Amino acid sequence: MAVLRSIFVLEQVDDSSGRMSGVIGQTIEELIPVIARTPADDELRSRWLMT
After folding, report:
1. How many other C-beta atoms can be found within 10 angstroms of the C-beta atom of residue 7?
2. Beta carbons within 8 Å of 51's beta carbon, 6+ residues apart
3. What three-state secondary structure class fits 1?
């Protein structure tokens, strides 16, 4: 889940208008339910967070 980790890092980017942070925040909100529904056991989810 390197992509997810990258999104969280990008969310912290300080841009002058705040637009990028807003778009990234919306993307995260849309991705979380998709990731939550993904069939995976606890071990696999742990590996996602560790990589």
Report:
1. 15
2. 1, 2
3. coil
pLDDT tens per residue, range 21-44: 788 788 888 888 888 888 989 898
Domain residues for 15? Answer: 2-50
pTM higher than 0.85, yes or no? no
CB-based contact 43:51 (threshold 8 Å)? no
Annotate 11-50 with three-state secondary structure.
HCCCCCCCHHHHHHHHHHHHHHHHHHHCCCCHHHHHHHHH
Q: Name the residue type at position 49.
A: L
What is the count of structural domains for the chain?
1
Which of helix, strand or coil describes residue 51?
A: coil
